[in-house]
Amino acid sequence: MSGSRLIDAWRTNDRVTRYLIEQLPPKLWSQPIPGMPRKTVRMLAAHLHNCRCWWIRGLGGKSGIVAPAPVDRNRATRQAVLRALARSSAGIIRLIELGETRGGTVPRSAWQNFPTDLAHFLCYFVAHEAHHRGQLVLIARQLGQPVPKHATNGLWQWIARGRE
Predict the structure, then answer these.
(1) Where residue 3 falls among pLDDT bands split at 50, 70, 90?
(2) pLDDT above 90 for 111
(3) Cα dist. 43→4, 78, 108 in Å?
(4) Could you tell me the residue range of the domain that residue 11 belongs to?
(5) What separation in angstroms does the CA of 76 have from each of 28, 40, 79, 153?
């Protein structure tokens, strides 16, 4: 699969993640996660960006790819997380481009639990974000503030999200 198709797939995944964060009921942002009272919805949303940054630094740092700054998981606003996700998405795209120039593999990180080929790379990051998107939807339900049905359905509208 070509790098440009992988980039398109990544961009759609990123848009789906940002779409969900945009749709979260505002009251949820500072709510503690059931069963994890020291963690909030804000922290989980910030984790998505901060984790991307960690991998960008680990996989691309030696090749000159600069990771964006992490967000403060205790203070970041929804808008700050959305802006940060756009920056870290660009970093993931640079990693895919780097992998293309290296024959289809990203550099190995000091700690890495997935093969270095671009297909596994992309699948790993999409799976990670899908896992946390599911958590966010479930947490919203548990807290009695579910994500609107049109928005949960919209998480599966990858053609529409890919056009946005």
Answers:
(1) low
(2) no
(3) 32, 11, 28
(4) 3-163
(5) 13, 11, 8, 27
Whole-model pTM: value is 0.94
CATH number at residue 47: 1.20.120.450
* Pair 16, 127: CB distance under 8 Å: no
Instruction: Give the separation between CA 1 and CA 16, rounded to whole angstroms.
Output: 22
Coil vs helix vs strand at 40: strand
**Residue among 6, 87, 73 nearest 44 (CA):** 73
- CA distances to 40, 49, 136 from 141, rounded to whole Å, are 14, 23, 9
The number of domains in the chain is 1
Single-letter amino acid, residue 149:
K
